[in-house]
Write a structure and sequence with these properties.
- The complex is a heterotrimer of chains A (183), B (263) and C (361).
- Chain A has a seven-stranded mixed β-sheet, sandwiched between helices.
- In chain A, α1 packs across α5, α3 crosses α4 and α4 packs across α6.
- Chain A contains six helices and seven strands, in the order βαβββαββααααβ.
- In chain A, α2 links the parallel β4 and β5.
- Chain A has a single domain, classed as Pyruvate-ferredoxin oxidoreductase, PFOR, domain III (Pyruvate-ferredoxin Oxidoreductase, domain 3, 3-Layer(aba) Sandwich), CATH 3.40.920.10.
- The longest helix of chain A is centred in the first third of the chain and has 14 residues.
- Chain A has 183 residues and is α/β, with parallel strands linked by helices.
- Chain B is an alpha/beta fold.
- Chain B has one domain: 3-Layer(aba) Sandwich (Rossmann fold).
- Helix content of chain B is 37%, strand content 18%.
- In chain B, the strands form two sheets. Chain B has an eight-stranded mixed β-sheet, sandwiched between helices. A two-stranded antiparallel ribbon of chain B has the order 5-6.
- Chain C is built from 15 helices and 14 strands.
- A seven-stranded mixed β-sheet of chain C has the order 3-2-4-5-7-6-12, with helices on both faces.
- Chain C has two domains: 191 residues, 3-Layer(aba) Sandwich (Rossmann fold); 111 residues, Rossmann fold, CATH 3.40.50.
- With 361 residues, chain C is an alpha/beta fold.
- The chains are: A alpha/beta (183), B alpha/beta (263), C alpha/beta (361).
- Chains in contact: A-C, B-C.
- At the A-C interface, α1 and β2 of A face β1, α9, β8 and α12 of C.
- Magnesium ion binds next to α5 and β5 of chain B.
- Thiamine diphosphate sits at the interface of chains B and C.
Chain lengths: 183, 263, 361
């Protein structure tokens, strides 16, 4: 199994840390992983994206132009990455702030109202964990217990008190993700 | 709502209360909101325009956040290697003594990697103006410790605070430069309030005037903020600067007419 | 002990490996895209973990000369930087090669020339493998292509540096420095005591104990005859390195009609390109040099007789291709494909280049 994933949105949406938790979860179940961010001055307040790969085999290129899954959190990223999803692949997005919804018919499209839900739950900071929960519902790549282990590993000790909230958010994500279009 | 101006009215020339100098390009500043670099750029350009020096000024940009100064300053510019601006400026001025030549440098650029160039250009009394933006940190590279970082101040390479025993003391390079006989006018200013902006502008004007009196180097430190590197909001950063930077780097003239100011 | 696995950036892995390998001193100056090395070290407080010294120098010129001083005392010393900083170090590196001092230097390459860009590149190949500074000298050059190899390059780097008393350069790039992968962390190696250094490195300047003759660390010899002998000895050493220390990896080369030759990030891209090309029915393999000096000349020479063409893939205008051409001695067609200015070629793009420049051409 190899899953090639792009996660893209604004800086500050927790795009990089979501990718990190996913990658750590992969390590917890003995997979090979890679996490490749875009970096540079344009990250200041601009868009942020990260390519995450989980695989049972040695990983080839950490930098890709075609993805099995795209997790899209703003319009710019939608415009850029919708065309890069492989036919039969998955596009998951949060409709908040999206003005042009995905149009492809040859991929599976799911949406998750994560930012709305994070606001409802009064937990804006764990918005990204709701998205991750939704993604793992559609693509159960990693066992939930490994996600929790990954979370513990990737969060510094001083944030460990936030793990229960993160778990809650992941669970909520599992519940609210919706399929818009089957591949 | 009648007495409210709409945007199309505001931008009419007769309604303008302030006009951007033509010596700042139309390019949108790449600096973080609240950063002092933008203000410093603007007032240097205003002075050059007001003094009618536009056609005979050469500026040298450093490596630091202001590496892109040449994108914003609408005069001839050269971009130097990290720390070497005073060397470039030396040659430009020596080969064309009638030009106005300035360098614009951060604290990492001027007081770490470029210390030798700074000290020796000052000591040779190069007839150039150095404008030194001291924000106590390496802004460009993501907030590492600078030679000017305050004791106990946190940065990404002093995450537990600057430990003087391990990392040495903050370098008051402006005071050091003032000791050298080659410098004629050395001052420390700021740009966080309108009155400070006025004072700094006056200092820059004076420095540029002195350049053509063949008296030695003119050196202006501007104590500034780096809200990104300090991990503060712009408002917090300015307050922190006043409360912490100014006591360590007191504002005012350090050397005037080639003589140390008694203090 | 259960093996310890961590998700780390290449730069962080290098820094952790530095502590674990028993480094005595790290000296550096911030520059993107490798500032994480020193930031990680400062956060980890290695002075408490192992007694290791970590110092932010005032420049790369100072850093490399701090390495000279430390290495002259037989200590394990290292620095890290990126292209413009490494350029500044060339004088010091030349002195260290002349004085035969061991050290590990990491270059997380970004695009040049000049200030260039902060994005990844491989345009420092020639500087790294042909000397870089003045004089006839070589650096042992390692080219990691994964985060694990970044980690491993520290231990291997010290091993080779001390075995041959020569600086070792780890030639990485911005992509490997910034990406995170799984890393297996090994046990802490104890730092050597002064007594152990005296025993293992009798040339080190640690003070004239027990009335021994004084030790001098220098690259100067004004007597041309002696300086020539010194140079000849250096050349013999490089020859020995070329005979004994070549490292490389071959993937899918046995049935290959064509091969990619690539190192570092380009080698990773080529692994994907290889899959894509094979799906199209083009039998291509990957030859990945792990040491760039010594370059795997003999091995490539042998490969040249078995394939129809070689594509050298490097994020540069084509620097490594000169070594490939020398190795294959005209036996087979060799072309270069690369991007510059911080652009990383896409796997599909490399396949197109293979088809156009080699398969059809
Ligand atoms: C030779 C070399 N070393 C290091 C760097 C990386 N570098 C770029 S800017 C900078 C420091 C900038 O700090 P400062 O001069 O204080 O300017 P600021 O960004 O704070 O305005 C460094 C170390 C470089 N470009 N060249
Ligand atoms: S990083 Fe600091 S110095 Fe650079 S633009 Fe932002 S606030 Fe200004
Ligand atoms: Mg600064």
């Amino acid at each position: 199994m190899t899953e090639e994933i792009i996660i893209a949105g604004f800086g500050g949406q927790g795009v990089l840390s979501m990718g990190k938790i996913l990658a750590y979860s992969g390590i917890m179940q003995d997979q090979e992983v890679s996490w490749m961010p875009s970096y540079g001055p344009e990250m200041r307040g601009g868009t942020a994206n990260v390519t995450v790969i989980l695989s049972d085999d040695r990983i080839s290129s950490p930098i890709l132009t075609e993805y099995d899954s795209a997790i899209i959190l703003n319009q710019q990223s939608m415009d850029k990455f919708e065309p890069m999803v492989k036919p039969g692949g998955l596009l998951l997005y949060d409709p908040n702030g999206i003005t042009r919804h995905p149009e492809r018919k040859d991929i599976k499209i799911c949406k998750i109202e994560a930012s709305k839900e994070a606001a409802n739950m009064g937990l804006r900071k764990i918005f990204n964990m709701i998205v991750l929960g939704g993604y793992l519902k559609v693509k159960p790549l990693v066992e939930m217990e490994n996600v929790i282990k990954g979370l513990k590993k990737s969060l510094p000790e001083r944030y460990h008190h936030m793990i229960p909230d993160n778990e809650k958010a992941i669970t909520r994500g599992l519940e609210i993700v919706e399929e818009v279009h089957a591949a | 709502m009648e007495d409210t101006l709409v945007k199309s009215e505001i931008i009419k020339p007769e309604n303008r209360v302030y006009k951007k100098t033509d010596l700042m390009t139309e390019k949108v500043l790449s600096y973080c909101p609240g950063c002092g670099h933008g203000t410093a750029h603007r007032i240097i350009m205003e002075v050059i325009e007001e003094m009618g020096l536009t056609e005979d000024t050469i500026g040298i940009a450093p490596v630091g956040c202001s590496v892109l100064a040449y994108e914003f300053m609408n005069v001839d510019m050269q971009q130097a290697a990290h720390g070497r601006a005073p060397a470039l400026a030396t040659a430009v001025k020596r080969l064309m003594p009638h030009k106005t030549v300035f360098t614009y440098q951060g604290d990492g650029d001027l007081a770490a990697i470029g210390t030798a160039e700074t000290i020796h250009a000052a000591n040779r009394g190069e007839r150039i103006t150095i404008i030194f933006i001291n924000n106590g940190i390496y802004g460009m590279t993501g907030g590492q410790m600078a030679p000017t970082t305050l004791p106990g101040m946190k940065s990404s390479t002093s995450p537990y605070g600057r430990d003087l025993d391990m990392m040495g003391h903050p370098l008051k390079i402006t005071e050091l430069v003032a000791q050298l006989p080659g410098t004629h006018y050395v001052t420390r200013q700021a740009v966080h309030t309108p009155s400070n902006v006025r004072k700094t502008k006056k200092a820059i004007r004076k420095a540029f005037e002195l350049q053509h009196q063949n008296v030695g180097m003119t050196f202006i430190e501007i104590v500034s903020n780096c809200n990104s590197g300090w991990k503060m909001t712009p408002v917090q950063a300015n307050k922190w600067m006043v409360d912490n930077m100014f006591p360590f780097y007191p504002l005012g003239d350090i050397k005037v007419d080639g003589k140390m100011v008694e203090g | 002990m259960e093996k310890e696995l961590r998700l780390m950036k290449g730069n962080e892995a290098f820094a952790e490996a530095a502590i674990r390998a028993g480094t005595d001193g790290y000296f550096g100056y911030p520059i993107t895209p490798q500032s994480e090395v020193m930031e990680y070290l400062m956060a980890e407080k290695p002075h408490e973990r192992t007694g290791m010294v970590v110092l932010q120098a005032e420049s790369e010129v100072a850093s490399i000369n701090m390495l000279y001083g430390g290495a002259g005392c037989g200590k394990k010393v290292m620095t890290s930087s990126s292209s413009p900083g490494i350029s500044l170090m060339q004088e010091g590196i030349s002195y260290m090669a002349g004085a035969e001092l061991p050290c590990v230097i990491l270059n997380v390459v970004r695009g040049g020339p000049g200030l260039g860009t902060i994005q990844p590149s491989q345009s420092d190949y020639s500087q790294s493998t042909k000397g870089g500074g003045h004089g006839d000298y070589r650096l042992i050059t390692l080219a990691p292509s994964s985060v694990q190899e970044m980690y491993d390059s520290v231990k291997l780097g010290y091993e080779l540096a001390f075995k041959y008393r020569n600086p070792v350069l780890v030639l990485s790039d911005g992509a490997i420095g910034q990406m995170m992968e799984k890393v297996e962390i090994d046990a802490q190696v104890e730092r050597l005591s002064e007594e152990q250094i005296r025993e293992q490195h009798p040339w080190a300047t640690l003070g004239r104990h027990n009335g021994r003759e004084r030790n001098i660390i220098t690259s100067l010899d004004l007597d041309p005859a002696r300086q020539e002998r010194h140079n000849e000895a250096l050349q013999r050493k490089y020859k020995e390195v070329e005979e004994k220390e070549v490292r490389y990896e071959k993937i899918n080369c046995d049935d290959a009609d064509y091969i990619f030759v690539a190192y570092g990030t380009s080698a990773r891209i080529c692994q994907k390109s290889m899959q894509l090309a094979r799906e199209k029915g083009i039998k291509v393999g990957l030859f990945r040099p792990i040491t760039l000096f010594p370059f795997p000349k003999k091995e490539l020479h042998e490969m040249a007789g078995q394939v129809k063409g070689i594509l050298s893939v490097e994020m540069s205008a084509g620097q490594m291709i000169e070594d490939i051409l020398l190795a294959v001695e005209g036996k087979v067609k060799v072309e270069h494909y690369g991007r510059m200015g911080g652009i990383i070629p896409a796997p599909g793009e490399v396949v197109d280049a293979l088809e156009q420049k080699i398969v059809k051409g």
